[in-house]
Amino acid sequence: MKFLLGVSAAMLFLSVFPFPIGYYTWLRLVITFSSGMLCFYHYKNDDYTMMSILGIVALLFNPVYPVYLGKKGIWLPIDLIVGCIFIYEAVKFPMEKK
User: Cα angle vertex 60, ends 34, 82, to 5°?
Assistant: First the structure.
């Protein structure tokens, strides 16, 4: 899970650069999946505040019914904030057993 969160955060930070539309579609898919997984994790651990935040992130980035906020300037701070949330979650997430 830490790897997935790291990849998700890296993709969000890279999204500040211009990429083809396919990258942003892929980004929406990865972020929605990661947010959904984290949302479920927080639900199981009774952390409803973080579950709600990640649920909103999953809805905002969902690729099925995309939210169009217009210019890239609006998405830039959202991408950076969500990237920071994912880094925080990756650091906080418990180590996986082998």
Answer: 55
Mean pLDDT along residues 12-24: 91
State which H helix or E strand residue 15 sits in: none
Q: CA-to-CA distance for 27 and 22, rounded, in angstroms?
A: 8
Tokens describing residue 51: 């579950």
Q: How many CB atoms lie within 10 A of CB 23?
A: 14
Q: What is the DSSP string of 25-50?
A: HHHHHHHHHHHHHHHHHHHHTT-HHH
DSSP code for 16:
T
**pTM for this predicted structure:** 0.86
pLDDT at 37 over 70: yes
